[in-house]
Write a structure and sequence with these properties.
Blueprint (H helix, E strand, L loop, with lengths): L14 H13 L4 H17 L2
């Protein structure tokens, strides 16, 4: 990951959503960023097949 140029993003959500997102990341032994990257890869794979 060191060779990639990373960007910061801001996401607006409720405290409950933030807590749920952090818990989902912990449950999957990932960072929140890692969880979002995984979701994005799966989303793109799924939608490129259409």
């Amino acid at each position: 990951m060191a060779d990639r140029k990373l960007e910061n993003i801001t996401v607006t959500m409720t405290k409950k959503e933030k807590k749920s997102l952090k818990q989902a990341a912990l449950d999957n032994d990932l960072s929140v960023s890692g969880l979002i990257r995984r979701w994005l890869v799966e989303y793109l794979d799924k939608n490129q097949r259409r």
